[in-house]
Amino acid sequence: MNAYIQILDIVKTSLDDNTNINTVVTAEEMSAENSANVFPLAEVIIETGELRQQVTFLKIRISCVDILTNVSEIVEDKFYGGTNREDIYNEMLAACRSVFDDLVNDKYTKDIVIVGVADIEKVENKKDGAIGWAIDFDIEVQSTVNRI
User: Which residues of the chain have pLDDT under 50?
Assistant: First the structure.
């Protein structure tokens, strides 16, 4: 049975194909020290799930974030302010949507099924100034256990 690796590979491939993402990691803490080459960043976390008869359900969370920076030119519009905040939220939401659509539309495999709907929420990491979106959803994979 290789459900865990299979899902990680598919999600990583989808995120690697996304022009809004530079780096894909699994449950690692990234710092802003090397952010020039790392961000925009996608983090894939699979921590829980369920085993049922011939089916494995895994709960997956994908966070897509970038570093908030000040805009160099003077901004007259008080609504958007002097940062790239809205641009980041827009691009990271598009990245989350893209990977979800790839999985729903079987772009990389027909072996997995999205169960239910995806929940999304804004992400703000005060430590390194990264902001963006996280998407949570459940995946169903048919169990293929080879027995001797």
Answer: none
